[in-house]
């Protein structure tokens, strides 16, 4: 484990091959940027996308980890810059007459659109379309948009809480922007499904119109990790009220180790739909879990489970890093085998999605996980198990 670091992302286990493409809409920071994971047709010699898409993200990760850009960014580039995600880049979309359910995925603080490729591709392999956003609220370690000038780019760096400003107010403003971006992503897919021409300013070799009759917009969920987990919860509140005349589409949320701190207390009674909280063993606080319990006490379909032997980064791709130095920088590993952790996370999510999106699959074979029954999983969180 002390040798040359590498990334060993798992091959997805579902029945579909997985493709992915990048979609950027608009020439300002008010546009959208996401990576779409989807079931695809097999293609010989398919290109696999880079896990870290550009060198600028290495600098952003160094900044977020509070390490010197001078040595950390080149180290990340040399050790991880050639790592690829085991999916088909711009692979031919596999049409579906019944339509794939849509998952809007929100990343955590300091992450970006590719750092959850393992869980996103796993879900896609079971017949879901997953739109992994790259948020522009300055919570991503780095992101950018293409300006209207040919070849122009403007980068948006990560921002720490400004000195003298209370963290709650700073993060609360961000979580509202993030949730609005989730809803705008849903609206984007509504536009595509209605036949509107949507320009992907990245000019990728992927025609978005192929999605038109293959996304089922009656089966939509929001999902996210950490800051993205609480973003998913807030998106359930935002989406019905975001714009008049639209039916409410988001039917549930899956929150991976949600960082509940940025959400104001007044909004908890407003969360209308069920949430599955999948926590790791080492991250949550009693205060955060109490906030989750407020939601589960209001909705019997809201579930809280904890994966034993896991740490906060266990639900990101960083958990699949080998090499002690890089793993130490990002606190990437718990005691649980990361592949087992991914299995628990994705299977619990699929069982929950089947129940609340009315999927005609056999994901209910994993329903026990939703009750915290199984190897390395417990109900609720360690802080409140004694009160069960």
Write the topology of this structure.
Layout: E1 6-7, E2 17-25, E3 32-40, H1 55-64, H2 69-80, E4 88-89, E5 100-106, H3 117-125, E6 129-133, E7 142-146, E8 153-157, H4 167-193, E9 215-225, H5 227-241, E10 250-256, E11 275-280, H6 286-298, E12 303-307, E13 321-322, H7 324-330, H8 338-357, H9 367-370, E14 377-379
Parallel strand pairs: 2-4, 5-6, 5-9, 9-10, 10-11, 11-12
Antiparallel strand pairs: 1-13, 2-3, 3-6, 7-8, 12-14
Helix pairs in contact: 1-2, 3-8, 4-5
Order of helices and strands: EEEHHEEHEEEHEHEEHEEHHHE
User: How many beta strands in the DSSP annotation?
Assistant: 14
Strand % is: 15-25%
Global morphology: globular
Query: Could you say which structural class the secondary elements and strand pairing correspond to?
Result: alpha/beta
**Low-confidence regions:** none
Structure described in brief:
Helix content is 30%, strand content 20%. The chain has helices at 55-64, 69-80, 117-125, 167-193, 227-241, 286-298, 324-330, 338-357, 367-370; strands spanning 6-7, 17-25, 32-40, 88-89, 100-106, 129-133, 142-146, 153-157, 215-225, 250-256, 275-280, 303-307, 321-322, 377-379. Strand 9 (215-225), helix 5 (227-241) and strand 10 (250-256) form a beta-alpha-beta unit.
Q: In words, what does this structure look like?
A:
- The chain has 388 residues and is an alpha/beta fold.
- The protein contains nine helices and 14 strands.
- The chain has helices spanning 55-64, 69-80, 117-125, 167-193, 227-241, 286-298, 324-330, 338-357, 367-370, and strands at residues 6-7, 17-25, 32-40, 88-89, 100-106, 129-133, 142-146, 153-157, 215-225, 250-256, 275-280, 303-307, 321-322, 377-379.
- The strands form three sheets. Strands 4-2-3-6-5-9-10-11-12-14 form a ten-stranded mixed sheet, with helices on both faces. Strands 1-13 form a two-stranded antiparallel sheet. A two-stranded antiparallel sheet has the order 7-8.
- Helix 3 links the parallel strand 5 and strand 6 (129-133).
- Helix 3 (117-125) packs across helix 8 and helix 4 (167-193) crosses helix 5 (227-241).
- The model has no long low-confidence stretch (mean pLDDT 91).
